[in-house]
Fold each of these.
Amino acid sequence: MARNDMALDHTHDVSARSWVAGAADPGAAFPVQNLPFGVYRQAGSAGAFRSCAAIGNSIIDLAAVNAGYGPNLNELAAAGRDTWRTLRHELFALLTDEGRKSQAASYLHDQSTVEMGMPVACPNFTDFYTSYFHAFNAGSIFRPDAPMTPNFKWLPIAYHGRASSVVVSGHEVRRPRGQRILPGDDSPTYGPCLWLDHEVELGLVMGPGNAMGDAVSVDEAESHMFGVVLLNDWSARDIQAFEYDPLGPFLAKSFATTISPWIVTMDALAPFRSPAFTRFAGDPECPAHLDSEANRAQGHLDIQVEAYLQGADSEERSRLSRTSYTTSYWTPAQLVAHHTSAGCPLVPGDILGTGTISGPTPEEAGTMLELSRAAQNPIKLSAGGTRTFIEDGDCITLAGKCQREGFTPIGFGEASGCVLPVLP
Ligand code: CA
């Protein structure tokens, strides 16, 4: 398997322009330098989902470049980086050549006329815990005398989550019921979650994967990454607090996870590489099997992630947080290397959550738990009102983008979900 390859090519050229409406607008999420993959069908239809890429205000069916996958992109994920790159180059050529407008016309659809589906059938969902600042903030709330667990700086902590409840943006989320200890009570009662929360994360969508027993090295890891989506790991904090010891979260996390419909490829992210997180003075050295020179130099991705809340009675959404993924302690390649280091096979379409992305300042916290200090300090919403945790009717939207001097900014679209009350 090829080593990580972060090369820039003509598809990153800042002067490249697509003729598709909206693609060359300043700040467009989907310029021709992006070309994320997804699956779509006509809005309101019951037809099968077909593969496409985003361009400007439109999607283009991959049949335009004689490719076709559906109803999800698992086969494309399995095909590997040469296929992803060839497709990117073919789309780029078509969408930047005015002379080929008529050839492409019948494959273009305005985004407002289509419905996006789950980009991959997700066989396995693993969720990591890689932000030092999130771990410290959350740890200080639940374990004030020992906020950090001793393993945090030695390995990227994770648990095996549920793939069956990973849903695409737009899917409604039902408030869960569970066992939690109410204030003043000594023992748990079963009832509606009172501390419903979001977690700002990214999801790494796996490509070809590894054979059982084979470990993937840090320097090979990125050839196993099909791309990146936004990921909201909905969390029931009160249920989590009672159930998590000793095996970690279970029902507090398994009721829903929302991802964005567009898989932004590692090729599209090449201009936005960053050095790995700088370990704090006194931290242990990075273990050799999770370390490499290339990873230290360029292992991270400068993806800016934001969370918004919009109440049922509000016309406007309020930003809850904004930070960069580079604040996380472990890089994507280290997550893949650690995941496979004992021989576990990754398979195409697997999603690895990065864990909540919280930066060093209070405004960079990726959960309501941190923002409200476990309901001690209500969050003031710019649209009016306050929140401690998520209320019925609230919609949480994650957004993401990359921007760097000398390159065309790219966006991730959105991962959005609105909360329904518990079933009667
Ligand atoms: Ca999480």
Amino acid sequence: MANKILVIGAGGQIGKELVEELCKIYGNDNVVASDIKHDISAPCAYEMVNVMDVHSITTVIKKHNVKEVYLLAALLSATAEKYPEQGWKLNMEGLLNVLELMREKVIDKLFWPSSIAVFGPNTPKVNTPQFTVMEPSTVYGISKQAGERWCEYYFRRYGTDVRSLRYPGLISYKSPPGGGTTDYAVDIYYEALAKGKYECFLGPDTVLPMMYMPDALRATIGIMQADADKVKIRSAYNLAAISFSPTEIANEIKKHIPNFEISYKPDSRQAIADSWPQSIDDAEAREHWGWKHQYSMETMTTDMLLHLKEAKK
Ligand code: SER
């Protein structure tokens, strides 16, 4: 029988779709969705959990006999810059709480997301390698880098089976992102359809690594399904698909909506974007456990617009 899975942060951009996908693969009875909110709809059992409260996590894990956790609750880059203490606390304590449950062997396997935000202004910007100078300059990036160190530490010291990916900006149509620097690449599609124009909070030439959600879900489930000995990196894997600037994605949208107009009004998120890489070298993920992306900027744009148009009907 498959291990029972708990998704913490099931109401978020990744969580919502990941729960649906896990239910399809393992069956609704083998998945439990949880979030700090109480009104999440899920195809499987739902529990309200505060990741800062180890008692509430433990109760749910024991009640459902959970063996595998996907810990997605976090404050993203722009929100964490507004509330640095809260960002650090949620992103760090949440992870440490679950790592402790692994050390105590309450659960066997953990997925915890890292991010391109672990890199900083001194990192090589193009084809950023797996192992390089990092020095993140945002609270979010600092929490992700520290988290990676903790994951590797628990693996080396206690043999905990924790797996992680450095997600690029994720683009999706089912559940909106919140508080990230890469969110523009989602907003732009909604506004293109609703208003035919979009004011971008990043400048025209700001190239960032991005990925369409179906690829991100395959990567996430892929690394969790890989044989343990194939997951050789226990901090977090670089993960890449596509890279583009606001100008480039706007031009792609214009192929579908010819009158679409983009304007630019960079805000504080520009400095965050400027500190991150433009493209990522993910050779290790491809080599070790067979990662391969499917969507290009072109196929993603066609698919996004198709689904958003359908949803408007
Ligand atoms: N998409 C995230 C953000 O912009 C990066 O991990 O904060």
